[in-house]
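S.,

Sequence below, as promised.
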Amino acid sequence: MDMHYYEDFKEMLQCLNEKLVAEDAHIEIKAIGGFAMMCNAMVLNFDSRNASVDIDSYHAYTERVKLLIREVATEFEVNHDWLNTDWRDDYTSKHHSEDGIIIGLSEWKWIPLDDVSLSNITVSYANIQGLFAMKLRAVNDRLVQGEEPRLNDVTDLTAILTFFEVERFENISNPSIKELLKHFANAKKYLADVLGK
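The prediction came back faster than expected:
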């Protein structure tokens, strides 16, 4: 799959915005995946990924909006799901007992994307604590199912832990990160092994 940089996504969003203006339609994007990781890394100035396959949006869209998203993909010669809601099908098909932990995370905030002007699209992204929670659960889920976690999830979690200056798991000072690791024991052990600590 092709990787896209931040500026690429901005151009695609601007193109989609023009199409939405013509349709007199508005959408909201709440990014939770790699794109959100890129945004956090840029704003907080830490070493992380600088490209992503897509923008994982927390929102579902109408068929008409999905068609406009595919039109943008055709014009830019990228995958049709560059603005992706497919993850929702997998998410809603499983029961996650930890959902309350993540939803109730007091430090989770949606941060507005403020360096691009889009009249018909409101864009925000999950902050670093929210991303850590979702990616931690993604790793934990795969381990529970006997599968290897996705490399990008592990890489993102490692980058976030480095940002929070986690040198040893038993010495974590950030209360949000500490609480999350307590609830996802499989992922915690896996990450400790990966970090060699």
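The mean pLDDT is 86.

Coffee later?
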